[in-house]
Specification:
By secondary structure, the protein is an all-alpha fold. It contains ten helices and no strands.
Length: 215
């Protein structure tokens, strides 16, 4: 199926497709589930609690309850829509469109302009992007994440694996320099967002995950 703007490897159509995909994916990413639910439904911004992060883990630790699933749905669906849109707009290379849109969706999630550029760390949305790209990429990213998180109870350690492994498994599956560059940018952003967790892991005072929220 041809995209809204079909373009070959160059030309005005390509530029317009990139601009539309980047802008739409970024603003989709800005719809941060944890911030929206906590700020506008619970009237208590999640970024004022715990780690100060606007992500699923901090939301669950702080509030828990059924609204956690609303956060999950929001962060999953925006990534799904962004990747599908990117694939459609980049009709000449849907795979490249998925990585391109995924990158800007992560940027919107991490640095949402409507929430003072203070967002989440991109694990749930990033994991969804991996699932939408290729089951092999998702298997490595999610498999390592789950194994490390279950064995150590450190979500951040599993998250670091997800961010670090994403570009390398993408490289293995798709040895295309454009895809690899986008994949390294995506993975690098996730790792960068976890720099405080890395310091806490090295210091031995990182929080462990529990299914029960803190009182």
């Amino acid at each position: 199926m041809e995209g809204f703007i079909y373009a070959g490897p160059s030309g005005v159509g390509l530029i317009l497709s990139m601009v539309i995909a980047a802008a739409a994916s970024y603003f989709l990413g800005c719809f941060n589930g944890a911030v929206i639910v906590s700020k506008y439904i619970l009237r208590d911004d999640v970024r004022n609690h715990g780690s100060g992060n606007a992500g699923l883990t901090n939301f669950h630790r702080t509030f828990g309850g059924g609204l956690t699933f609303v956060v999950i749905l929001c962060d999953v669906m925006k990534a799904v829509i962004a990747v599908l849109l990117g694939s459609w707009l980049f009709a000449w290379d849907p795979l490249l469109g998925k990585y391109f849109a995924g990158l800007f969706c992560l940027l919107g999630h991490m640095f949402p302009c409507m929430f003072k550029f203070k967002g989440g760390k991109g694990i749930l949305s990033g994991g969804t992007i991996a699932l939408m790209i290729d089951w092999r990429v998702a298997l490595v990213v999610w498999g390592g994440f789950l194994i490390l998180t279950i064995l150590t109870k450190y979500v951040s350690l599993g998250s670091l694996w997800a961010g670090a492994s994403f570009p390398f498994v993408s490289w293995y599956c798709y040895p295309d320099v454009r895809v690899v560059v986008l994949a390294f940018l995506c993975g690098g952003l996730v790792v960068w967002q976890h720099r405080a967790n890395i310091r806490r892991l090295l210091a031995g005072n990182e929080n462990k995950f529990s299914l029960h929220r803190k009182s």
